[in-house]
Amino acid sequence: MKKQKLISLAALLLTSLLLLTVPAASMPFMQQDSAAATLQNSSNAAVQEKDSSQQSQDETVSMLKSALKGNVASAKTFWQLTTTGGNVAYVILGVLCLGLLIIAFKAVKITFDWHYSKDLVQVDFKQLELTEIEAQVKKSRKSTMRQMMEYILGFYRAGGDSMSVQQELTTFVDLKNDQFESYRNWVNFLSDSAGGLGLLGTVWGIFQTFFGGDLDPDKILNGMAVALITTLFGVIVSLILNLGATQTFSSFSNRLEQISDKGDELRLYLLQLNTKNGRTTGYMAPALSTESGEATQMATSGNATVLEQTVERIEKAILSLGDGAAPSRENGQKSKSPKISVHAVEPLFSSIRTGETLKKVLKLQAEDRANRPLEHTRISLETQGPLFFEGKKRELEIETDKTGHAEITMVGGKKVSTASVSFWISGDQEHRENLEIKLYPNTPSQLIIQRGDNQPGRIGQRLTQPLQVLARDQFGNPVPDAEVTFRLAQGEGALNGGARDFSTSTNEFGITEADFTLSDRTGFHCVEASLKDDHGETVKFHILGTA
User: Is the whole-model pTM more than 0.70?
Assistant: First the structure.
């Protein structure tokens, strides 16, 4: 028993000695082993996590590659690429086809028009008579050149002043420009629509990618494919249509310039023809004989009945006998000394603007043979050309006041021309008085681009075509001396020598222009042209700077 206790005591002492010696010698090694174990465990966890992440990435990449092989990567043709872009790509492709069809139609039309007018371009007016020119125009094939010549010759044949042919030629050119503007607006609309559809496809593709929060690889690739392909299609189609419209407009401008030059040649021929014949107007209607003129006068004098005309003639005869003068007309001449006369009072009414209403601008005075004013005397008036009385009337009858005066309101028509107003004592058209009235354009209300829009140019150089505009009033008449301001709104460059703003005035035909020099930067530029005091809408010239 004691032996066992001694053994137990000895074991206890040995254990105590071991516990006393471990903190001093063996404890650091235990801490190092513990730290190593901890690091080992962390490393193993990180490796496991990395392996798991790598495995997840490998699976994602594998799935993306699989999706690519089944979708975009398999698009080897243009049609497969279009199919990948979805419905928006189909619409953009349709816009391209429609735009190219319109451009091709216009290009073919311009080409045929040029071909059909080759014979008229070679006509030498100086070597032909007017009838020969008309015959050659009539037998030529239908073209814009033929329309222009028929228009000018018809105006001249109708009695138009050869000096006014320039105005008619400008009107014809403006009409053709307006017709072409409709075509250009369509192409510009299609070009802008292609760009807008490309942006719509981008938004739609991104929406497909992230809608619902499910980032499935197939869904991501399909959405991004729609976004990228539609954007690419939209930009390419927009550039193609812009280029086609620019080239077509350039061809049309050259064609119209050729027609205008030939029209000026015809105008000079007509002017020389008038000078040669000793007159300033075109073909005039033959004058009526005195007897036939009197018969017509009796049949159409005002709105009087036959009885009223008879009474007036009797009164005139009695008055003439009372004065001791017989109402004879030797050799068909008019009486030189009327009993009652009417004349305009200074200042004389001589000009009016188109569409303008001038209150009581024409003042008349009725007098007897002794120059005494006659009250309550009826005066008849009539206008010729684009000139009217108040209420758009061409004929008017008015009564003088107590002082023998009458004041008439005049209204200008829609066309710039020369008009006239005639007036006489009612029932006595033999002593008509006439005033010639000039109609001038009204305030400019719109600008029309003549040439220079949608043209490319090399950077650092001046554009081949100047930026040209036409100022017109509300009736389409060219307005001379209208102030126009050109302003560089987008891009870099210089107007007429170095400024971003340039102001000028239109010439006698309502046209003005500005030169534009591109900077050293490529890209799109925009120049705006506007009328003074913000009349009408601002027009914009689009220019593409290329290297």
Answer: no
